[in-house]
User: Fold this.
Amino acid sequence: MSKTRVIEVEPVTRVEGHGKISIHLDEDNNVQESRLHIVEFRGFERFIQNRPYWEVPVIVQRLCGICPVSHHLAASKAMDLIVGVKKLTPTAEKMRRLMHYGQIMQSHVLHFFHLCSPDLLFGFDADPRKRNVMGIIDEKPELAVQAVMMRKFGQEIIKATAGKKIHGTGAIPGGVNKNLSIGERDFFLKDMEQMKTWSLSALDLAKNFTRDNFEKVGGFANFNSSHLSMVREDGALDLYHGNLRAIDASGNIIFNQIDYQRYYDHLMEEVRSWSYMKFPFIKKRGHLDGWYRVGPLSRLNTCGFIDTPKADKALQEFKGVTGGKPNHMSLAYHWARMIEVVHCVEKIEDLLNDPDLQGDDLVAHGERQEEGVGVIEAPRGTLIHHYKVDESDQVTFCNLIVSTTHNNEAMNLAVSKVAKKYLSGQPKITEAMLNHLEVAVRAYDPCLSCATHALGQMPLTVELYDANNNKIDGMSTAL
Amino acid sequence: MNATIKFRIDGTQVVTKAGLTIMKAADNAGIYIPRLCDEKGLEPQGSCRICIVKIGGQIVASCTQPAEDGLEVENDTPEIRNYRRDLVKMLYHEGNHLCPICEASGRCELQAVSYYLGIFQPTKYPYLQPDRPVDASHRDILLNTNRCIRCGRCIRASKTLDGKNLFGYIGRGIHKQVGVNGENLANTDAKVGDAAMALETCPVGCIIQKRQGFFAPIGKRRFDLKPLGTNSVKQQKGGSEQ
Assistant:
């Protein structure tokens, strides 16, 4: 009788939420199957029903403590349509954009410096006692300060626009509930030069890691896939509003400038028994071939250009690496993420110098509608909120397709690729080998709490099973 | 007759005309006594017991107890504060008071009294978690009795100020709650302009005006600007939980 072993990595660490990796090995220790399991469940889509619609942007943001602004704004965009508002006042849209750019900046910085930089700076197989954020503080204190201060800047932007750094109330159906005072504006302007300098140095760090380790990056969880994101009507990167564009692995358009109100004509979700996270796919390509990636890497692959100069220059350099074709390297997410930080900082400066932010026309009005879809490019990718509201103003339907969910298939494939490359045939499985699996997952900056609309932290576990499906080993790494 | 009387609250002399309640005399003197069922313009009901004070060893409701010459009233003492805290905590456990997602947050008197009393976290009692249907039938007003604390302010306002008698108590004991005199709110002549529907009348988020939630930004809501008890002579909070 053949024997297989199963390795479990549980919990996966330095990611947002709870998950585990299981690796099935045969008698010769060759990897047969690898899976990223998402083990949280929460049920927001159900208990939001019967709530009055104006509560929704405040309630659903509780999905997450890392990127609540994304949920707050996606829900608000849907509720704009419920109250019949297709175009916000300039002050309202710019306040929301400012909130969103602050959010993406702080989230990307958190991920890059606090969660991933230990792998990038010390090595994937470095001593785990050093390969953590405390190691960064010890050995690279200037980077640690930069990380904290950049994140603080983004969080303060959120507080100024939403009232609180976490779970604010700034966006309301049809607009916002406050503008930006002169005092608040000047508080941020005094730090802009420092933020610009730091965003460029962070970009250099991510870029140089990719260039200096190009062979490793190119051979680590690098696989062809389609990519999806929202783009502006002229094809520019737009993190707040636009239409949907999907490209295949060669860069050919699958669909373009699709109004996201009809996202369900183009995207479907598959359920699999072993994960609480669904598997979305592009309808016309079917569930086997229709999967795709989202997030910073995908956004840079799908957009034609960036409308801020420093980020656009960085984009052209990024695209040059693959000759203008889509970049499929999982570890290139880090570089793409830091280009977006540069973009956000440039956008924040532009907005702070825009007098519209001091306007008093905060809320637009329209004719009440029954259904609305809000889409935003969250830090981790395209975020879709879909609601129906009855004539009593109560929510009757809610569907959320969260950024991390789109990347479900890709993360599983990344784990599988890395497992086969680093674990297959090895007589002994080491912590360093397992960290390679986590590095692959971490590149996607998954928020498993969001993806399952679930509660809690997100440590991850690796489990090892034998050929008879008996668990024979497991490993958990502390947060 | 406008006779003047003198009495003391926590040692501070209060000079007032005769015939007022202890609460009214304290208000006039700028001494804060926390309350939930009492509201300016309504007859006192004495039901929430948050305004209790101690006189001669007896606990009484200051909203209904007449002030008398020579009284020594204990108001902001550790003993009374602890009684008040227990009473307020039980209200949280009898209803669904989810402050982080409630549109009344920041203007909610239950929340503001809790902060005044130093209650900032869940407490020791089991949650009853009522699951009463929300009455969203009215075009402009929504009734969520899961948040009701049975203060009766809406009942009294509707009866005495609006002359409509839209609300009443139903049930007994722990099952007592406020109900609509009718099938639902849409089948009454309730209007946004009614005193019973005013945001200041309902001390929590039970009666809310539709489509107005979260319009006030954090930092500019009623009790963000002036927390309860901070405009009184003593300018002191109720202290941290004992």
In short: The helical segments of chain B are 22-29, 78-94, 109-117, 153-161, 222-225.
